[in-house]
Amino acid sequence: MVTFLSGGTGTPKLLAGAQSVFDPAETTVVGNTGDDVELGGLLVCPDIDTVLFEQGDVLDRERWWGIADDTTETHGELRDLAESVGLEPGPRYLPEAAQTEGRDIARWRRFSGIAEFMEIGDRDRAIHLTRTSLLDEGRSLTEVTRLLAAALDVPVDVVPMSDDPVASIVHTAASKKEDEDEDENEDETGADYPDEMHFQEFWVAHRADPAVERVEFRGADSAEPSPAALGAIEEGPVVVGPSNPVTSIGPIAAIDGLREALESATVVAVSPFVEDEVFSGPAAKLMEAVGYEPSTRGVATAYDFADAFVLDDADGTDLDRPVVRTDTRMDDEADAERVAEAVVDALDARGVA
Ligand code: GDP
Predict the structure, then answer these.
(1) Ligand 1 centroid, distance to 282 Cα (angstroms)
(2) What is the 3-state secondary structure (H, E, C) of 142-196?
């Protein structure tokens, strides 16, 4: 058995070439749900969906999200309707009271569907509609995720980290302006960013522009691990694919039971950096904001539960734990297979594989 922890890019890329190295029937993928939002009443799970679409062979591999060749009729109509009567595109949060009403799983990240700030394809929307309806019929997110995986012929077991709500909230540095003349927390229109926003507002609507003070995983203190995720991590070994340590692995490690299980399991992590160069995304900025060096060294500090690392050939970082080096750039399945083999070597170094 092997268990992967996944955000929405690095681990799905690794899984794309892992099947010749790790038997899919023996593989569990635990998905981060801190990035999830409810949009127009539908629960969208971006990280889990990318795993499902990649493993179900329908992923749009150009953008690395959504379904390949999907249409956007409904999304376009939502934008047009709003524009025709002057409704701003948003992100448009539902009123505060509505954030904690209704289905629990969507707490603290509930957005109106008016002019939909995230692009949702038509086939993609059918996934969210099915997911949300099954949740409303009383099933857990774990059960629903497994049903969607079966519908898409996904060969690995995909489960969420928790069946309870955990929302990744970015607190901006609005109150910490260093220079009065240079307001770093303004958008291009000069308007101040809000003091706090959901990660998807930070990333999709503002392209990671706001200065960050801290990141909160709202709900993590009371969230229970999904029993399936906990069991899989306890069984191990665990592979942390290249991920954003703050917003992809942070929410998983913020759930007490999962953190304890990670501390006991054998864990190998693939660095999302080559020394201090990140492959993509806002990992460096977010790590710096929460007090980690934005580099492979900082990843090793954040992953105090990891027992060995896979680093890039060009990454000379000296770590206090075993390291296996390979070319860690993954552009195709052959690249992913090479990195998966390095993961096996790293597990070997820990006497597991
Ligand atoms: P998110 O959910 O989309 O933010 O993505 P993840 O947390 O799954 O992964 C983001 C991290 O993956 C970024 O920090 C990237 O540097 C890293 N990454 C993306 N592509 C590659 C790659 O080909 N190789 C490696 N080693 N890291 C990558």
Answers:
(1) 10
(2) HHHHHHHHHHCCCCCEEEECECCCCEEEEEECCCCCCECCECCCECCCCCECCCE
C-alpha of residue 144 to centroid of ligand 1, in Å: 26
* Cα of 283 from ligand 1 centre, angstroms: 8
Joined tokens for residue 251: 């929410």
CATH number of 36-156: 1.10.8.240
pLDDT tens-place string over residues 266-314: 999 999 999 999 999 999 999 999 999 999 999 999 999 999 999 999 9
Q: Is the CB of 272 under 6 A from ligand 1?
A: yes
Q: Is the dihedral of CA 5, 8, 10, 14 positive or negative?
A: positive
Beta bridge partners of 179: 182
pLDDT of residue 181 exceeding 60 = no
Overall pTM surpassing 0.90 (yes/no): yes
- pLDDT value at residue 187: 57
Ligand 1 neighbour 244 (Cβ under 6 A): yes
Single-letter amino acid code for the residue at 77: E
Dist. CA 50 → ligand 1 center (Å)? 13
The CATH H-level (homologous superfamily) assignment of domain 228-349 is: CofD-like domains (3.40.50.10680)
36-156 and 228-349 share one fold: no
The response to whether residue 11 sits with its C-beta less than 6 Å from ligand 1 reads: yes
129 band by pLDDT with thresholds 50, 70 and 90? very high
Task: Indicate the domain borders of the chain.
Answer: 36-156, 167-218, 228-349
Q: Which residue owns the Cα nearest ligand 1 atom 10? A: 243
Which atom, in ligand 1's list, is nearest to the CA of 312? 26
Tell me, what's the pLDDT at 177?
A: 45
- Supply the pLDDT for residue 351: 67
What number is the average pLDDT over the span 184-204? 81
CA distance 250 to 220: 10
Ligand 1: centre distance to CA 244 (Å):
6
